[in-house]
Specification:
This is Chitin-binding type-2 domain-containing protein. It comes from Mya arenaria (Soft-shell clam). InterPro entries: Chitin-bd_dom, Growth_fac_rcpt_cys_sf. The chain is mainly β. It is built from no helices and 8 strands.
Length: 79
């Protein structure tokens, strides 16, 4: 009997332990074998070892394409 795969993690078949979703992805549900890619306008960052269950809104003055792990500053002259 293995551990339940927690939100913010993924568990491939036969995996003995849950694995954190990598930067740029998240998982809101338990018992999943993959993580979801962060949508445009959001970012997902595995900071301080905290599982990513909900994407963060991109900060004003920055942009976040799909799969962002951190906001990127807007170039000079853009917003």
């Amino acid at each position: 009997m293995g551990l339940e795969c927690w939100p913010g993690h993924y568990c491939e078949q036969g995996s003995p332990i849950p694995v954190f979703c990598p930067n740029g992805t998240f998982q809101p549900s338990s018992a999943q074998s993959t993580c979801l890619t962060c949508d445009p306008g959001f970012y997902c960052n595995l900071a301080a070892g905290v599982a990513i269950t909900t994407p963060a809104n991109c900060t004003m003055g920055y942009y976040c394409p799909a799969g962002s792990s951190l906001p990127t500053p807007c170039p000079v002259g853009t917003y």
